[in-house]
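A reminder from the course coordinator: this example appears on the midterm review sheet, so study it carefully.

Given structure:
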């Protein structure tokens, strides 16, 4: 009879014991999934906000139409006003492989936009350039840049914060008390530092800042937008430009410019640590909830585990069952949390006008964090099963 029992014991190894343990008490499964899912949602929201923050801060840079970019060496972030004289760009046009060099002017701290039809004024970011030269990749800007040749003409961002009134049909307003004419609109969107964007010609900007629109060459330059000749080697031209230009400026490729801004936001600004701290809090909360759920389950099912040990099943098999149960708990909680996060991204994205999107990399990373916190909790609670003695339990 003992010999007949051996095959039956081996056959039970193929029974989905972890799954049956998990669904044996459906009410408890729903409660535990809700707790773990809350922690998962918290991590997803924090990670999504971090990605949205970076994407918004990189929005303008990604729309610049250039191969290389000249900026002041002391500039520590894209939106920091740190201009250089226009004459510093003069030597760039003579470098082999360079097709064109266009100055881009910018202001983040000096120009105040008056709400059309209202009395309040708000600080806006402004970019100015020669309308005869293409500086941005935005199709709407390029289609309408000839309109900027009109006196005091501006293009405004229809996706700016609503209180700026840029999305309406107003045709004029004031910037720094000077009347400007709205000749067109484009779609870009705000970021965490600026509420809206205005584009104009260099002559209009000179009139606003210096009172003399006939001398735009006197304006200091924020960026030099360099386009290369077809077939030119970007790295070689970049080295040549660095050698030809004054030491007060430096030359970036577009990937380097994006990495430069990303490094500032992640390492030097407070945004990166804040979002990662929120993610860590979600991870710890989820691990504590998972530990409590798994520990309670193991305590309730301890006689069953002790019975299996008494029947001859090894510790390794029991440990595997516990980890399988923890992994299944993670997946069951992750799916509804992920779906709910899609709704959160949509609602917050519409209200805050931020680019919040669920991506494959974000999904996989958050799933790995969820599995990690549940498996870590299981490793802390599993001692309950390892030390179970069938004789003591019964």
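Designed residues:
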């Amino acid at each position: 009879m003992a010999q007949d029992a051996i095959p039956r014991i081996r056959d039970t190894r193929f029974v989905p014991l972890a799954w049956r343990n998990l669904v044996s008490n459906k009410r408890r499964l729903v409660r535990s999934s809700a707790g773990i899912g809350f922690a998962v949602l918290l991590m997803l929201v924090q990670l999504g906000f971090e990605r949205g923050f970076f994407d918004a801060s990189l929005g303008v840079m990604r729309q610049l139409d250039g191969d290389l970019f000249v900026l002041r060496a002391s500039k520590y972030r894209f939106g920091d006003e740190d201009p250089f004289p226009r004459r510093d760009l003069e030597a760039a046009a003579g470098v082999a492989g360079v097709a064109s060099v266009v100055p881009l002017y910018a202001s983040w701290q000096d120009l105040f936009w008056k709400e059309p039809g209202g009395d309040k004024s708000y600080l806006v970011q402004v970019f100015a350039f020669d309308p005869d030269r293409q500086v941005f990749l935005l199709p709407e800007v390029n289609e309408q840049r000839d309109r900027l040749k009109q006196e005091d003409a501006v293009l405004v961002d229809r996706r700016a914060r609503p209180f700026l009134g840029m999305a309406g049909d107003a045709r004029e307003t004031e910037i720094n008390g000077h009347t400007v004419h709205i000749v067109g609109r484009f779609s870009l969107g705000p970021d965490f530092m600026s509420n809206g964007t205005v584009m104009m010609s260099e002559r209009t900007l000179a009139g606003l800042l210096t009172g003399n629109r006939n001398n735009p060459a006197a304006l200091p330059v924020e960026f030099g937008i360099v386009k290369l000749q077809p077939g030119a080697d970007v790295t070689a031209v970049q080295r040549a430009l660095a050698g030809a230009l004054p030491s007060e400026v430096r030359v970036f490729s577009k990937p380097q410019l994006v990495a430069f801004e990303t490094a500032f936001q992640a390492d030097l600004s407070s945004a990166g640590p804040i979002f990662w701290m929120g993610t860590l809090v979600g991870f710890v909360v989820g691990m504590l909830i998972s530990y409590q759920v798994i520990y309670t389950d193991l305590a309730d099912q301890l006689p069953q585990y002790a019975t299996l040990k008494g029947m001859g099943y090894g510790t390794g098999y029991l440990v595997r069952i516990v980890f399988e149960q923890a992994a299944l708990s993670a997946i069951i909680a992750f799916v509804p949390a992920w779906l709910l996060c899609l709704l959160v991204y949509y609602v917050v994205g519409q209200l805050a006008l931020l680019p919040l999107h669920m991506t494959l990399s974000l999904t996989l990373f958050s799933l790995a964090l969820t599995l990690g916190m549940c498996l870590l909790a299981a490793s802390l609670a599993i001692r309950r099963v390892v030390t179970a003695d069938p004789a003591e339990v019964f």
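DSSP finds 14 helices and eleven strands in the chain. The CA atoms of residues 34 and 241 lie 58 Å apart.
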